[in-house]
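name: query_chain
kind: protein
chains: 1
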Amino acid sequence: MKTASEMTYTVSGGALNSTQLNSVVCQQLMFIRTYLDVDSTSKGLVNGDGKTSRAAGDCAEDQTITEEVILFEANAYALASHFLWGLWSIIQSHISTIRFAYLVCTSFCCRFILLVLTILAVV
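structure:
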């Protein structure tokens, strides 16, 4: 299993099929679980036997809800970020004197936005 620092997120130019999309969502959830485990370890919520001690009322269902909320929020922020970068690149393509493929950047942002919207529909 990869550690949180080893996990990366890449976007391919093609459309994802349902198996690939589920794989992306599973990778994101694995990253979130790893992050939450490391966070609980750093806060001293791990017993001496290496098992996480949960606070009262914190059950597996609460953990799943927390993971889904974090996944939704992370994808929503990614969506907003890529929308703003796409908007920036459209503006720059008209006003900048620097020769750069700003519209290619916009195209990438639009593909990523469509990917995130698809992921949000799955979650």
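note: Confidence is low (pLDDT under 50) at residues 1-13.
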